[in-house]
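In keeping with the milestone schedule agreed at the kick-off meeting, the structural modelling team has produced records for the first pair of proteins. Each record is given below as a sequence line and a structure-token line. The laboratory manager (R.T.) confirmed that both were archived under the project's standard naming scheme.
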Amino acid sequence: MAADELTGLIRYLGQEDWQECFGEVLGDHIGPALEAGDISFEDLAEMIGPDVAMTLWGCAFEDFLGQDWDDGRNFVDVYLKRRGWKEGPRNSA
């Protein structure tokens, strides 16, 4: 899947009610490394370069997309219900 096919999902991640959920997943992926080095994600990005940092972010994002949360919601399902009309058939599938 090309990055431009995920643009809508990435933008929708800016919704306040999903920030904490994504933060949990991102923390699961890179939190131990950040804690061990006593650094922030921005510090890590400076150390390893923005391309590698975004690859790590992308791995967490991909994992996040498949998660169901305690309240039974799934980010992709909610996005498609609210914004799916903006996506073409290929992206919606």
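The second protein of the pair:
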Amino acid sequence: MTTLAKGKRITGTERELLAKELKKRYAAGASIRELATETNRSYGFIHRLLNDSGVKLRGRGGATRSRAGVKR
């Protein structure tokens, strides 16, 4: 994961590439807070970028695990 310069605007292709990378990491189980720390960006920036990219965000408390045979 690339650490970004704090305060630098991320636009255009760079933003799209970052969004793609973050989507992949988030889908693999990384939290928004972990992604924010790794990229040197705020929680709000990562949340907004994932949201704008169409990612279905997990509920509070992290990834949920379902028990075999139990439907939610």
